[in-house]
Design a protein that fits this description.
single chain; about 110 residues; mainly alpha; two-stranded parallel ribbon; 4 helices; 2 strands; about 5% strand; GHL10; Glycosyl hydrolase-like 10 domain-containing protein
Length: about 110
Amino acid sequence: MSPFGIWEHKANDSRGSDTPTSSSSTYSKQVYADTLGWVKAGILDYIVPQVYWSSDQPVAPYGEIARWWNNAVEGTNVRLYIGQPNYKYTLFGPKEVAWTNPDEVPNQLLFN
């Protein structure tokens, strides 16, 4: 299972990530897949959330989202693999300054 990176915002649900409600889609508003519920119920073997933001992205910083997913699987048998946006690290990706830094992806991998 490879869901969207933000399950829910803390402002909407106390179990959510500390991300602004304006930052993006969530399971309760657009995606309608309660992946946290699936993790807690133990019906997944693994989960690969799409954490496609840079470390300095203000609306969804990589560290906040990756840490949230790590906490979500803690105490379960569900394995966590963070989805990386390697396409953003190329010349053909979006023009976000963070992805021009050759250390962005290696730093994210070290964070994991």
